[in-house]
Amino acid sequence: MERGKLIADRYELIGRLGRGGMGEVWAARDHVLHREVALKLLDLDGIVHADLPRRFEREAVAAAQIVHPNVAALYDRGTHDDVLFLVMEKVDGQTLTARLQAESPFPLPRVVAIASSVCAALEAAHRAQVIHYDIKPHNVILTGDGLVKVIDFGIAGFVQATFTVARSSQLTPAGTPEYGAPEQFLTERGDERSDLYALGGMLFGMLAGRPPFTGHNSIAVVRRKLDEEAPPLDAFRPGLPPEVTALVAELLERDPDRRPQSAQQVQQRLQALLASCAAAEAPTATMPPPPRTRLMGDTQQRAPRPPSPDSWNRASTDETPFTADALLPRRFTNDLDIEFARISEGTRLSSEAGPSDLAGELARGECTEVVVGVYAEQPGPHATPENPVYVSVQVFAFPDAATARDAHKNLGDGGGAWRLTIWSAHDGGGLAPCPDRIRRSLRWRYSQRVHRYLSVALAYRADLTNDGSIQPWLAAAARKAAVSAGPQNHHGD
């Protein structure tokens, strides 16, 4: 297929979004309803089976019955030049796979929120008697406005049914080895509980930073799933609430009868975990309301009080001095053992942190200041002075943890990187916003919220390279810078 081709005299191919073993996904334009859609072309590689058209029709009609905000809608289906196609809602955002590569492992509240949204999608699908069969991070999209969307409902089930009937000796397409349930790789198709197993695998991956089972190839992963129990989650991420580790362990049971028996049951437990996370982050009832953050240059208000020994990381306190020294380390070593040193710093009004729409959102959240630090270093064995990596860290202060959490959904987790100013070191000291060309260079972003502080770090290379080999350096630098920033760093770098 090529750009500009018209499918079924209606859908114009605009650009390829992805390619897999079963075909391609394209962004397309619906010339009848005048809207953007996603078009999935299913290439069954010469499989001939009289029942396929009817089965394809049945699966598509079933998937079209799922109407839920966490499910990408299925609009149409058909055949074009002996290729099956499905027309779906075009979801703009990042796959969970991409987010995990950039930010893994996730904080617990975020993991539970994403899992709850995926589980809600499973509830809706299972009510429509549709099983996904391939729940995995790549089939979960995080949109710019904070929604979680599950894609390919009904498609994975159709593909599995096709291969189970037409190619009984080739079971790999029955699911993704790292996340699919063990029974999917035997002679069974599995059922709703297979989707719940995959949800458990995603929970494990988001919290541990890796799937529960790994191996040097797909066959090795499947063999381990069939022969071994899933490893305990707390072996990879200690300190999690026992309710979390217990739920993940039950979802990853090899025997479907020992797993939770419905998505509704799992959702009830996830909702209880969400409530626990919210309660843990909320300020205590006996704590007095925090004072408003002091505006820069406001000499009428008193200086910050001396901190109590345990106050630096307490939710919703205003005891951490809002200065670069208090909130940013002077140096840090990133995940690739590259040392970064702060070469410029400054404190700015939030109105200077970006364009007007960002400034307005910060003002509504009662954020009055932003601390900025810029770091530079030469990454890798072939570095030269002309192409250092710069890391710009911004720490936003909000009046309380709840407001910071809302801001994180929009500024931190909501795909709003394009609205955040990238700062660079300015000749003669101080900071200056980078020009637009920096925004178009290869860069990486990481965000983290600690109580009422939201830290966002952007790493980019000075030579504006598009060479993807720099990506691990940028990702490691941005992640470590954001994690290093915050009130916990006041006592040392």
UniProtKB/TrEMBL annotation:
InterPro entries recorded: Kinase-like_dom_sf, Prot_kinase_dom, Protein_kinase_ATP_BS, Ser/Thr_kinase_AS
Pfam families: Pkinase (PF00069)
Stored SMART domains: S_TKc
Sequence ranges of Polar residues compositional bias: 310-320
Positions of the Protein kinase domain: 11-274
EC number(s) stated in the UniProt entry for this protein: 2.7.11.1
Region (Disordered): 281-320
Keyword annotations of the record: ATP-binding, Kinase, Nucleotide-binding, Plasmid, Serine/threonine-protein kinase, Transferase
Residues that coordinate or bind ATP: 40
Domain of life: Bacteria
Single annotated GO MF: protein serine/threonine kinase activity
Record PANTHER family: MITOGEN-ACTIVATED PROTEIN KINASE KINASE KINASE 20-RELATED (PTHR43289), SERINE_THREONINE-PROTEIN KINASE NEKL-3 (PTHR43289:SF6)
Name of the molecule in the record: non-specific serine/threonine protein kinase
Biological classification of the source: Bacteria, Bacillati, Actinomycetota, Actinomycetes, Kitasatosporales
